[in-house]
């Protein structure tokens, strides 16, 4: 298979084309959000964190 020669005009068209870039950015951001959510789930399942949050809510709701 032979490719056509890479001229300045053709290179500019190839390397400045942003088709699909937004979709890729959304996909990466979505994967990062899912990973972060998974990390939060793991942290929130620990008894120590659950106790800290429960104590925080109790103190916030207690009338002093």
How much of the polypeptide forms β-strand, as a percent range? under 5%
* Mean pLDDT over the full residue set: 86
Structural class: mainly alpha
Termini gap: 80 Å
Largest sheet: none
Please give the number of β-strands: 0
For this entry, what is the oligomeric state of its chains?
Answer: single chain
Description:
Keywords: Membrane, Transmembrane, Transmembrane helix. This is DUF4244 domain-containing protein. InterPro entries: DUF4244 (IPR025338). The chain is mainly alpha-helical. It has one domain (8-61). The chain is built from 3 helices and no strands. The longest helix is centred in the middle third of the chain and has 24 residues, at 21-44.
Key traits:
mainly alpha, 64 residues
Short description:
With 64 residues, the chain is mainly alpha-helical. The protein has one domain (8-61).
Q: What topology emerges from the helices and strands here?
A:
Elements (H helix, E strand, L loop, with lengths): L7 H8 L5 H24 L2 H15 L3
């Amino acid at each position: 298979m032979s490719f056509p020669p890479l001229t300045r005009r053709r290179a500019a068209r190839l390397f400045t084309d942003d088709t699909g870039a937004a979709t890729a950015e959304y996909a990466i951001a979505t994967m990062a959000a899912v990973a972060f959510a998974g990390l939060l789930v793991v942290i929130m399942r620990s008894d120590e964190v659950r106790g800290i949050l429960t104590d925080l809510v109790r103190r916030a709701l207690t009338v002093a």
